[in-house]
Amino acid sequence: MTTLGVTSRINYSGNGATTVFSFPHYVEDAGDLDVWLRGAAGVETLQTIFTHYTFSGLESVSVAARSKPHIAPNDQLAGAFNGNV
Q1: How far is it, in rounded angstroms, from Cα 35 to Cα 8?
Q2: Contacting residues for 15 by C-beta, under 8 A, at least 6 apart
Q3: How wide is the angle at C-alpha 43 spanned by C-alphas 41 and 48, nearest 5°?
Q4: Which of 5, 17, 54, 64 has the most crowded Cβ, counting Cβ within 10 A?
Q5: H/E stretch holding 45
Q6: How far apart are CA 43 and CA 31, in angstroms?
Q7: What is the pTM of this model?
Q8: Tens of pLDDT along 1-58?
Q9: Nearest to 65 by CA among 7, 20, 26
């Protein structure tokens, strides 16, 4: 059975040095995961794959998003699964 529109979101706070953030869910395709950057002012911006981040671990239980560059202190990175389950 396929369920559409399932969203699982994980938020990470930046520290000015960390660039790798895990998303501990099975992700089959990079298009199934949206990455958002929320600045200190609370404005969220959808990030673009290969421009703002890259992936490793697709089709595994845990995916890692590597931000380019690091996420500044007081900023947050969020990964949201928007694919089919």
Answers
A1: 12
A2: 71, 73
A3: 130
A4: 64
A5: strand 44-46
A6: 22
A7: 0.70
A8: 444 555 577 888 888 888 888 877 777 777 777 888 888 888 888 888 888 888 777 7
A9: 20
**What sign does the CA torsion over 15, 18, 24, 30 have?**
positive
User: In Å, how far are 37, 39, 51, 76 from 42, measured between CA atoms?
Assistant: 9, 5, 22, 9
Tokens standing for residue 39: 């600045």
Residue with tokens 């559409």: 4
The span from the CA of 40 to the CA of 59, in Å, is 33
Task: Read off the tokens for 82.
Answer: 């928007």
Whole-angstrom Cα Rg for the chain = 13
Which residue matches tokens 């501990």?
A: 24
Instruction: Give me 84's structure tokens.
Output: 């089919």
Tell the residue number behind the tokens 């671990």, with chain if given: 57
Q: What is the DSSP secondary-structure string of 9-27?
A: EEEEE--SS--EEEE-S--
